[in-house]
Design brief:
Blueprint (H helix, E strand, L loop, with lengths): L6 E6 L1 H17 L3 E6 L3 H14 L5 E5 L11 H12 L2 E4 L3 H5 L3 E5 L1 H18 L13 E6 H6 L12 E3 L3
Parallel strand pairs: 1-2, 1-3, 3-4, 4-5, 6-7
Antiparallel strand pairs: 5-6
Helix pairs in contact: 2-3
């Protein structure tokens, strides 16, 4: 969607999302992206981190990721500020929270519950068939759909017509 982006900024609370950031760093590297992380364990440090990010971002080569993190993406204070500042700076924001797209984030990937159910069924049946007692382990979610905010895309100069096969678009036609 934005091929010129080379750096992705994220503010996260390590008490909740350290595991995810480790995976994201590796995934970003594999895609030729640099993930720039800011740790914040309270609202004040999260706000400071966003201010630092907005002071240094390059709208053509940077994007901001909002993870599912109630500390750093607090809905009543942080989210409105981040969306307002990113709009003013023409900075792409994507979110792990589907509802943020309706509020102005460019896009979100969200679970495809039907496909996820199928995968869980196959995994459960394979586990039962193997007779294994240990089902430990975690796998990244790959069964996802995409929601896109067309108004935000237009504002950013992105041609995101309906023909691109998005699963959900906002504002709704």
């Amino acid at each position: 969607m934005m091929p010129k982006v080379r750096r992705v900024f994220v503010v996260y609370d390590p008490r909740h999302n350290e595991w995810m950031i480790r995976l994201a760093k590796s995934a970003a590297r594999n895609q030729g992206l640099e993930l720039i992380v800011y740790e914040a364990q309270d609202l004040r440090s999260a706000m400071r981190a966003y201010q630092d990010i907005f002071a240094t971002v390059d709208r053509l080569h940077d994007a901001l990721w909002l993870p599912q993190d109630s500390t750093t993406v607090e809905e009543s204070t942080v989210l409105p500020l981040v969306l307002q500042e990113s709009w003013a700076r023409n900075l792409a924001v994507f979110s792990s929270n589907f509802t943020h797209v309706r509020r102005g984030a460019l896009f979100s990937l969200y679970p495809d519950n039907v496909e996820l159910g199928r995968r869980l069924t196959v995994s459960a049946l394979a586990l039962l068939a193997s007779g294994a007692d240990d089902a430990s382990g975690m796998a990244p979610l790959r069964e996802v759909l995409i929601a896109v905010n067309l108004r935000t895309a237009k504002h950013l100069g992105i041609n995101a017509g309906h023909a691109q096969g998005f699963d959900m678009t906002f504002p709704e036609p």
